[in-house]
């Protein structure tokens, strides 16, 4: 009887230790608009992976659509709670006051995907101006040194505006002329309307560039609906929405540049782990970093693009990737 009782007690002890070890060691917040948008699938994937690997809880707050007002309100509400760390996206400058408040409150805040000047402790993501230059380089590679170009993007989003800036910088001095551009609002129907309008207005166009995640499928669909065939225009796009991948396979889209999106989010969590658990602020840069009034963070970590083409598009199929469903990210 005593042996059975001892065995039961030991089993209960092991279960309690296991339960304790499974409890998340820290809680962070991801606050942003656009959480329900197709582009953000890979951001969620990266956060899920990081939550499991680091055994931390990540709570998402904000808006499923691109409503920055809702995300701004969520950020304002979280700051007084003094969370261990915040990850956010500066697509819209309206987020800036909240980012500044978080910093002034001493809360570590890392920006991903879109930077906003010197705000936030650290930015992890693309150098979006350079991503625009890379887009231009791909256009030159596939279509030569001259032509007539159409462009759509989500104007007003800081990262997309920066990509457009880089595209125009790189094409300056070449034989390329941007003959039309429109705002697609990073939304499927608006992007399709913009693409069809541009194609109808400018039948002389020889190439089309889409600078946000909704553009690729919209441009290719517009081409289909207007009776154009794969190869009638050179098409260079951004990101990796599933609908767009199908058009890379069929040849309507020549190539797409995409961020290492999941890795960007993983690194943000990893930095917060170093800040909260591993003496990050005491890295020996000076004898007294705080008294020296320096930031120990790097200013930016640029993740760089990868290029999706017909040769490797199957590897980007989300149906072939792990989902990492976890209650730690919610």
Structural summary, described in words:
The protein has 2 domains: 144 residues, Response regulator (Rossmann fold), CATH 3.40.50; 132 residues, Rossmann fold (3-Layer(aba) Sandwich), CATH 3.40.50.2300. 41% of the residues lie in helices and 18% in strands. Strands 2-1-3-4-5-11 form a 6-stranded parallel sheet, sandwiched between helices. It has a 6-stranded mixed sheet with strand order 7-6-8-9-10-12, with helices on both faces. The relative contact order is 0.14.
Blueprint of the fold:
Elements (H helix, E strand, L loop, with lengths): L1 H21 L4 E6 L8 H14 L2 E6 L5 H11 L7 E3 L7 H9 L4 E4 L9 E4 L2 H16 L2 E8 L4 H14 L3 E9 L4 H14 L5 E4 L4 H11 L8 E5 L3 H9 L4 E5 L1 H17 L22 E3 L2 E4 L22
Parallel strand pairs: 1-2, 1-3, 3-4, 4-5, 5-11, 6-7, 6-8, 8-9, 9-10
Antiparallel strand pairs: 10-12
Helix pairs in contact: 2-10, 5-6, 7-8, 8-9
Domain count, please report it: 2
Oligomer: single chain
Strand order, main sheet: write it out: 2-1-3-4-5-11
CATH level-four homologous superfamily name of the largest domain: Response regulator
CATH topology of the largest domain: Rossmann fold
Spans of at least 5 consecutive residues whose pLDDT stays below 50 are 1-20
The Cα radius of gyration reads: 23 Å
Short description:
With 330 residues, the protein is α/β, with parallel strands linked by helices. It is 41% helix and 18% strand.
Descriptive keywords:
330 residues; Rossmann fold; six-stranded mixed beta sheet
């Amino acid at each position: 009887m005593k042996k059975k009782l001892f065995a039961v007690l030991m089993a209960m002890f092991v279960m309690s230790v296991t339960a304790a070890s499974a409890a998340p060691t820290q809680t962070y917040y991801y606050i942003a608009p656009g959480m329900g948008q197709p582009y953000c699938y890979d951001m969620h994937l990266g956060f899920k992976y990081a939550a499991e690997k680091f055994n931390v809880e990540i709570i998402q707050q904000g808006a499923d659509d691109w409503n920055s007002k809702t995300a701004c309100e969520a950020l304002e509400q979280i700051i007084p709670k003094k969370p261990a760390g915040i990850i956010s996206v500066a697509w819209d400058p309206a987020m800036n006051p909240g980012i500044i408040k978080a910093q002034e409150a001493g809360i570590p805040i890392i920006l991903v995907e879109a930077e906003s000047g010197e705000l936030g402790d650290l930015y992890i993501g693309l150098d979006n101006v350079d991503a625009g230059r890379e887009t231009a380089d791909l256009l030159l590679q596939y279509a030569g040194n001259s032509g007539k170009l159409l462009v759509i993007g989500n104007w007003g989003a800081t990262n997309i505006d920066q990509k457009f800036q880089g595209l125009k910088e790189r094409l300056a001095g070449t034989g390329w002329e941007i003959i039309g551009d429109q705002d697609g609002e990073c939304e499927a129907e608006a992007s399709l309307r913009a693409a069809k309008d541009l194609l109808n207005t400018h039948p002389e166009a020889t190439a089309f560039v889409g600078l946000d995640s909704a553009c690729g499928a919209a441009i290719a669909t517009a081409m289909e609906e207007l009776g154009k065939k794969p190869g009638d225009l050179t098409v260079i796009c951004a990101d990796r929405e599933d609908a767009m991948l199908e058009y890379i396979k069929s040849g309507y889209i020549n190539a797409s540049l995409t961020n290492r999106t999941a890795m960007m989010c993983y690194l943000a969590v990893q930095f917060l782990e170093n800040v909260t658990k591993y003496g990050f602020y005491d890295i020996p840069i000076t004898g007294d970093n705080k008294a020296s009034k320096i930031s120990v963070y790097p200013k930016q970590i640029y993740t760089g693009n990868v290029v999706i083409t017909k040769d490797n598009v199957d590897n980007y199929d989300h149906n072939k990737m792990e989902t990492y469903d976890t209650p730690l990210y919610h």
